[in-house]
Amino acid sequence: xxxxxxxxxxxxxxxxxQRANLACxxxxxxxxxxxxxxxxxxxxLFRNILVLENGEHGLCGVKSRSxxxxxxxxxxxxxxxxxxxxxxxxxxxxxxxxGMLGAIVGIGDLxxxxxxxxxxxxxxxxxxxxxxxxxxxxRRFARVGCIGGKKRSLxxxxxxxxxxxxxxxxxxxxxxxxNFRRGSIRLDQAPISLVVDALRKIRFDLKLAA
Length: 210
Description:
The chain is an alpha+beta fold.
């Protein structure tokens, strides 16, 4: 794994928080973390397809990941150009628009990172694969933590075990091209100057972030 990979180390997260706080006072050197995802999952966030209740935070947009992250606050959402998942795009009739790949497409406040419950894992599978489940089916599948039990024959896309929970999700008016670093990295950093005009247009106030 590359040495510049962001781990779950709290000191790394603290550094990100300090850089994000600089953005609030308008420093030109300030940066924000950039979280990548393949098409169409960012668009599924903006369309309120991937949502779960999360305690005091209420209804949140949610991504699944296999790694922990202690940072909380504003985070830029990047759509990768390396590959795409056409299955959920076809299911939800999401079309790939010009300029969407290899670009920062929006922002949100990361408010929580935690492991999914079994019931939440089932809900994530149902949302990824657009499978309608009755309450009885949800309860039955929640006992084993996945749709279809051990065979898993009913789903094509399964979530990772950790949820990244977002509030205040906003899509930018136009995607912003960004050269995400190559290699096995989980996050990158982008200068505030790259997205400041887009933030102003959607009236996203970084001071509101935790």
